[in-house]
Amino acid sequence: MTRCVKRNFRLTRSTDFKRVRRFGKSYADPLVVLVALPNEQAKPRLAVSAGRSLGGAVERNRAKRLLREAIRPNIPSILPGWDCLFLARRPILTAPFPNITSAVTALLHQAHLWNETDVR
Fold it and tell me: What is the DSSP letter of 11?
């Protein structure tokens, strides 16, 4: 079974989540919030979270799956050396997938984390 976001591109520890939430700069969209903080690594590290305000476990897991899948194709274009935490908001549950993808891309551009020299 393959994962959407490879392990070496993920924030995994609770302390990392807390550090990004506390010291990172946030960028908001009606569907998603991006919190970004520089790190000392040669690659971006990403995390996805959905709070209890989103609903029960089924809704939270669905929101996280949608968000991960929207982020996955953008990983090569994210500048290295950043920890990014994506927080799902309630409207993500009813939004069409292309809107989620464009929200993620817009937030990465807004945060200046998009690698403009990357040519796909």
Answer: -
């590290």: which residue's tokens?
A: 45
Helices 97-110 and 57-71 cross at an angle (nearest 10°) of 60
Q: Which two tokens stand for residue 15?
A: 């302390």
Helix (H, G, I), strand (E, B) or coil at 119: coil
Residues 63, 54: contact at Cβ < 8 Å?
yes
Burial of 31 (0-12, 13-18, 19+ CB in 10 A): buried
pLDDT tens-digit profile of 35-93? Answer: 999 988 888 889 999 999 999 999 999 999 999 999 999 888 899 999 999 999 999 99
In this structure, which amino acid lies at residue 16?
Answer: D
Closest Cα to residue 28, out of 83, 91, 79? 91
